[in-house]
UniProtKB/TrEMBL annotation:
This is Transcriptional regulator with XRE-family HTH domain. Pfam families: DUF5753, HTH_31. Residues 18-72 form the HTH cro/C1-type domain. InterPro entries: Cro/C1-type_HTH (IPR001387), DUF5753 (IPR043917), Lambda_DNA-bd_dom_sf (IPR010982). It comes from Streptomyces thermodiastaticus. The lineage of its organism: Bacteria, Bacillati, Actinomycetota, Actinomycetes, Kitasatosporales.
Amino acid sequence: MASNVNPTVRRRRLGQELRRLRELKGMTAEEVAERLLVSQSKISRLENGRRSISQRDVRDLCGVYEVEDQRIVDSLMQMAKDSRQQGWWHAFGDIPYSVYIGLETDAESLRVYEPQIITGLLQTRPYAEAIVQGGSPESTEQENDKRVEVRLRRQSRITAEQDPLRLWVVLDEAALHRVVGSRQVMREQLEHVLELSQLPHVTVQVLPFEVGAHAGINGQYSILEFADAADSSVVYIEGVTSDLYLEKPHDVQKYTVMYEHLRAQSLNVEQSRRLVERLAKEYAR
């Protein structure tokens, strides 16, 4: 599924390099913005990779930073060009979380804590349809269908023959008991989780009710890690109207430690499978 050029990752790497050049020059984002007669927020968005960057922007910034090596300028210009290409998800139109999809497409591993529902990468079509319709009651049928198709397309990272996504999921037990769609939908969904959990690169643990208060009590989050050392890990927190991406090392470390606590508090892999299997049989009655 991943293309040779991932525009999201290109923007992110380009932004990191531009930030490095600014810091080497000893300039603040405000000073750069003043020199270029643009807003400080534009410089910040360019550096964090959340905004498309033109070759003209790169040229102007390299001028401000007095980059004399033309090979560096040409490399950055090419990255800007690549960053404006479209990923597979753009074929579905405006996707609110397109930045996340770009990161997930290029990630080497993904750790997810999900307190309410079965996480998207493990969902069956009927379950996904029920989740999307329930979560977006005012959206059109066409909009909901598009969201479902994007979700199912993302799942090919798990079943890919080469370099599949390494997925570790901690599911709150509540997600297994919440009847989404129907009891039949839930039975099929839990059986699907059991099937995918047999893959060597997929690990599923259940956080049982009996744990009580726990390290994930504040809600869902994901941690994405990348094969390229130049790409720092990202913590993703999904919101209703906007999403949060945390990349500062101390933020990522805090969430990583929280995730380790969640894993320790959860049932082990075999215990989790037995619980999922038991509930799947109960839904079949």
